Amino acid sequence: MYVWIWRHLPGGVPWKALQTLLLVTGVCALLLFVIFPWIEPKLPISHVTVNQ
Amino acid sequence: MSVEDPPAGPPPVPRARHYRDKPNPSTADWVRFGLRGTGQTLITAGLVILLFVVYELWVTNIFAHEKQTKAHNQLEKEWAQGKDPLPQDDPRLTLPGGKQATIPIGSGIANLYIPRLGPDYHFTIVEGTDDGSLEKGPGHYVGTALPGQIGNFAVAGHRVGKGEPFLNLDHLKPGDAVVVETKSSWYIYRVKGNEQTGDLNDRGTDGIPGREIVNPSQSAVILPVPDHPGQKPTEKLMTMTTCHPKFTANQRMIVHAVLARVVPRVANRLPKELSGGTL
Predict the structure, then answer these.
(1) Which residue of A38, A47, A50 to mutate against B (max B Cβ within 10 Å)?
(2) Which pTM was predicted?
(3) pLDDT tens across B8-24, in order?
(4) Mutant choice from B20, B53, B55 vs A, greatest count of A C-beta within 10 A
(5) ipTM of the complex, rounded to two decimals
(6) Distance (Å, rounded) from C-alpha B152 to C-alpha B161?
């Protein structure tokens, strides 16, 4: 997968490296700000109340 | 025959850069392909889970701290304007028709100080125990007593992440002060249990311990008389709930405290229980 992405990025190595950095940042942001906040309440890890 | 002669036959095929570029991948190539794919997927999953841990332990705290600061500033502003989010006159909060006076969910109602957890320990308690409220700070169980009232002022708070107000709730010992500041008063609660022996499990004369670990379904711990359904309350109690053990939600840690004294709130003065306090 990673090899495939690397080969399909246009440009030379420095340009590819920059795009890779942007991709990684984008994926991390998506996980941290969208996916994790959405999935977190569904996981039984941070429930602190007793059932009422 | 000179050495400069071109080699006979077709020119050599350039070596494939990748096994999938080979015209006829062999079984071994496919196995390699499969193993590499699995390996990369597993490494990716590991990194995602690691990132989730970073999110839980660090990122949620940043967000929660922002919300807590906002709730705190809002409450201070209301107090400065002479407004108190807590209803004043009716001690039982009951309106004609048996309805309960409602405080807006998610708004700050009081400040919490626990000297045992550090001189800087303070959180603004908000109304409500839904996810959104608990992200702002410790949340007051709707319908339970308010600070200083007869009954049980019950508060839930996160243990790990989301501002983690109750991270070190297990450090509390019998007799430790839990100070609640409202617009009108300072309420000094003391953690129950046996102060002589330091035994938090000691149920004392009223049958209520300083600390107990219970199942999440055991809602009796926030009753007006904790663990005693149907009993009429006479004491002014405070109960804090959080998850237990740390990082899980299998059980709940419950800490009970009882009101020891009340001092009217005076501008710029703190109760004796807090460092620099004189009241």
Answers:
(1) A50
(2) 0.85
(3) 666 666 665 555 566 78
(4) B55
(5) 0.90
(6) 26
